[in-house]
C-alpha cells in the first residue's frame, strides 16, 4: 500500500495547524515524525489514520482518496493499525484474549483461524500467555502496551501508526519496544510520532514539523549531526549531547552507536 498526501491543510476557520503537506509513504517504509510541541505531529497522524478529514488536499491510498465514500474509508481502516499515546484509551474488553480478538472480530476473521493469529501476535509482541485471562487494566504500563501492539499485529496491517509509543514506559519496556520495532520494520509501513532520538534512529526516514509545515524530510541519520539537528529545530537530548562531545574529541561515535542500537 502506498500513501500519498497531496497539498494537505487542516485547521479551523482561518487557524491552520497543518499547511501545504505533501509526502509519499511507500510500502515497507519506516518513518519517524518529530517536532516541538504544537507543531502538528498528532494531527498529521490523525489525518493519516483517516480519523479527521483535511480542510483541503487529499489522502490517497494506492491512488484512491480514503474519503471518497464510506466503503473506501472502511477498507482503508481494515488495512491500518493506530496505537494512541495513552494505553487506557485503547481498552475495550474484559480479558487480554478478548481484547486482542476484538480486532479480528471487527475485521470479520473466521473463528477457526483467530486463535492461531492471536498466538502469533502475542509471541511477536512479547505478551505473556499467562496474562490471557486477566483484565488488561490490571497489567503494568509496559505489559498493556504489548497487548495493544498484539491487537494490531494480529490482523497483519499494511500500515502501523504509533503516537509516542514510549510514553510512560520504564527502561526494560523501552528495550522491548525497540526489539519489536526492528522485527516489524519492512513487513509493513511504520509511521511513529516520537520525541525519542533512539527510536527515530531506528527508522529509515525522519520528518520534522515546524509550525504545521515540513521543515525536514530525509534520512534519520541527521539526528547524529549536532549542527543540523539543532538547525531543524529539535530539542537537544542526552544522545545528541554525547555525540557532539565525542565528535569534538575526534571519536567516531556514529558507527558505534548504530552497532549498539542494532544489538539492543
Verbal overview:
The chain is of the alpha/beta class and 264 residues long. Helices cover 39% and strands 23% of the residues. The longest helix has 15 residues, at 111-125. The model has no long low-confidence stretch (mean pLDDT 85).
Radius of gyration: 19 Å
Q: What is the topology, as strand order, of the major beta sheet?
A: 6-7-8-3-9-10
Question: Into which percentage range does the β-strand content fall?
Answer: 15-25%
Indicate the overall shape.
globular
The number of helical elements comes to 10
| Strand and helix order | EEEHEEHEHHHEHEHEEHHH
State the low-pLDDT regions, or none. Answer: none
> What is the CA–CA distance across the termini?
29 Å
Give the structure's gist in a few sentences:
The protein is built from ten helices and ten strands.
Protein topology:
Layout: E1 3-12, E2 15-25, E3 30-35, H1 41-48, E4 56-61, E5 64-65, H2 70-77, E6 80-83, H3 96-106, H4 111-125, H5 141-153, E7 159-163, H6 171-184, E8 189-193, H7 197-201, E9 205-210, E10 213-219, H8 226-231, H9 238-248, H10 253-263
Parallel strand pairs: 3-8, 3-9, 6-7, 7-8
Antiparallel strand pairs: 1-2, 1-4, 4-5, 9-10
Helix pairs in contact: 3-4, 3-5, 4-5
